[in-house]
Amino acid sequence: MSRIDAVWENCGPGIDAFMVCSRQNRYYLSAFTGSAGCLLIDGAHRFLITDSRYTEQARAEATLFEVVESRRVWDKAAELARSQGWKRIGFEAEHVTVHDYLRLLAQYRDLEWVPLTGIVERERRIKDDVERAHLQRAAQIADRALSGVLDHLHPGVSEREFQLALDHAMEEEGAEGVSFPTIVASGPRGSLPHAKPTERRFEDDDWVTIDFGAVYQGYHSDETVTIPLTNRARSGKLQIIYDIVLQAQKAGIKALRAGVFASQVDEIVRDVIIEAGFGEYFGHGTGHGVGLDVHEDPLLGPNPPNDVKLDEGMVVTIEPGIYLPQVGGVRLEDMLLVTAEGSTRLSAWNKE
């Protein structure tokens, strides 16, 4: 079954057509890389509505779609719906603002606009062979880049200087860009899970947390390492914390396989940290899916609203952390492909 057919099936009975406007979902279904436009599909029709800046590009990329030029996407969608005899139009509830939704209700009263949730995202959870190859390549680019800038990781270099060097190295290795603003947190700033790099300069006894990723063919990598700058750093409390976090991550990776619920993996990881006495310092989920978005379904956390049974072909992270205010923190993160027997690691940085 094609991606488009699977998404249409997810819409269920009673929906005459489905509108897709989010950039990642639009690309996933059509291969169109432009920044403006919407898809409108049913069981037999495939329209891509975009403006004059992108029509030539859309026809070259989205070969399975009929490209319709318009600056007023919603007006054109309503016009197409009427011409096809559609009455109930589903749309991505997560990607349409309340303002736009109210406008739809007021302006197109002859049509019924139906908010639908997770229709495309559900299909994106399982990566095909091409997607897996792109994710593997993105992870390789990031790992090679980090290896290439280790000579910048020494006392006297600032967080910001290291971040710029790493970002540049990822692009030199072939990245289209970075997956997200690179996180570099040194010394006591390591207790900030999403720290913004500053002009703080590395010191002898620092541990440095680096959360980084590369984009390749639209697919993201995501990895975190925490590195001691010197042997002096290894003699402090954070070495104990590092060992606990590493043990928790190993437990999570061991538990990861098709058929296990995402929340079960989180519980196994979290129990290691709780039993070590640091449960209150691990406040985020154990992991998440990775793909066209750096954070996507499934979410590996405690009692998620929509717990997911893991399946072969999902790519997820395992990223436990412990964060001690005024002391520092440790987070270790790897990307893994879920298999029937366990998992295959896509990020290759040795965390032992």
UniProtKB/TrEMBL annotation:
Domain (Creatinase N-terminal): residue spans on this chain: 14-126
Query: Could you give a GO molecular-function term held by this entry?
Result: metalloexopeptidase activity
Where along the sequence do coiled-coil regions lie?
A: none
Q: Which UniProt keywords apply?
A: Hydrolase, Metal-binding
Q: Which PROSITE patterns match?
A: PROLINE_PEPTIDASE
Instruction: Indicate yes or no for the key word Hydrolase.
Output: yes
Q: CDD domains per the record?
A: APP-like
Gene3D superfamilies linked to this entry: Creatinase/methionine aminopeptidase superfamily, Creatinase/prolidase N-terminal domain
UniProt cross-references to Pfam families, sorted A to Z: Creatinase_N, Peptidase_M24
User: Residue limits of the Peptidase M24 domain?
Assistant: 134-340
Name used for this protein in its record: Aminopeptidase P family protein
What is the protein's species of origin? Sulfobacillus benefaciens
